What we know:
This protein is mainly alpha-helical. It has seven helices and no strands. Helix 1 runs parallel beside helix 3 (about 80-105) and helix 6 (about 155-170) runs antiparallel to helix 7.
Amino acid sequence: xxxxxxxxxxxxxxxxxxxxxxxxxxxxxxxxxxxxxxxxxxxxxxxxxxxxxxxxxxxxxxxxxxxxxxxxxxxxxxxxxxxxxxxxxxxxxxxxxxxxxxxxxxxxxxxxxxxxxxxxxxxxxxxxxxxxxxxxxxxxxxxxxxxxxxxxxxxxxxxxxxxxxxxxxxxxxxxxxxxxxxxxxxxxxxxxxxxxxxxxxxxxxxxxxxxxxxx
Length: 215
């Protein structure tokens, strides 16, 4: 849980008087819950299913094998720790690596193409232990940055990332049905319940004069 300190620090710096206007600056607020919910399924399908799952399947069919970190012979109750770790990853990575990092680069005047490259490189850098399996991570990171820069909403990425990692860990413990439910059924069901009265938010217009100055 100590990993959450990184995300808490980012949110604190955004909320200080010399900050950037609070969590809303990176799209993490409750002003548009229906729009955020409407983005859950697109983020899930585009970034995670297409960007990671499909690429992993293609590499597998091509005979390219990744390095799968072993869970070892842990007792069953260790599943709780892995679920907590999955939720931590969804919160910390998306707030720090996606929302805050992209925002700061843009404030520094970095060109959009370089913002995307830097964000993808950062995300891939701490997944290199997967070996060739880092390629699907790069696909996921690339699509995540593009979708995030289009809609500027961070909540859907946190939610789907936490569900995705939780499902992967549960399937590693051979809870196939529960893992599949977390990976697929839960996000789809959630969106289906509210899509009738939801809409995907548009990207907010930039303020005149460019991005806000750094705090």
